[in-house]
Amino acid sequence: MTDGDMTSADTPRIAIIGAGPAGIRAAETLVEAGLRVTLIDEAALPGGQIYRQPPPTLRRPAKALYGFEAGKAEALHSSFARLRSAIDYRPETLVWGARDNRLLLSSRAGNTEIAFDKLILATGAMDRIAPVAGWTQPGVYSLGGAQVVLKHQACLIGKRPIFAGTGPLLYLIAWQYLRAGSRPAAVLDTGSFAGQLRALPRLARQPRTLLKGLYFTAALRAKGIPVLYSALPARIDARDDNLVLTYTRNGRSHEIAGDAVALGSGLKPETQLAEILGCAFDFHSPSRSYLPRCDRMGRSSLATTYIAGDTGGIRGADAAEAGGALAALAVLEDLGRSVPEVRKRQLLTHMRRAEIFRSGLELAFAYPAPAIAGLADDTVLCRCENVTIGDLRAAIPQWNITEMNRLKAITRCGMGRCQGRVCGSAAMEVLASETHAPIESVGRLRGQIPLKPVVGSNFETKAAS
Ligand SMILES: Cc1cc2nc3c(=O)[nH]c(=O)nc-3n(C[C@H](O)[C@H](O)[C@H](O)COP(=O)(O)OP(=O)(O)OC[C@H]3O[C@@H](n4cnc5c(N)ncnc54)[C@H](O)[C@@H]3O)c2cc1C
Question: Are residues 400 and 438 in the same domain?
Answer without folding.
Answer: yes
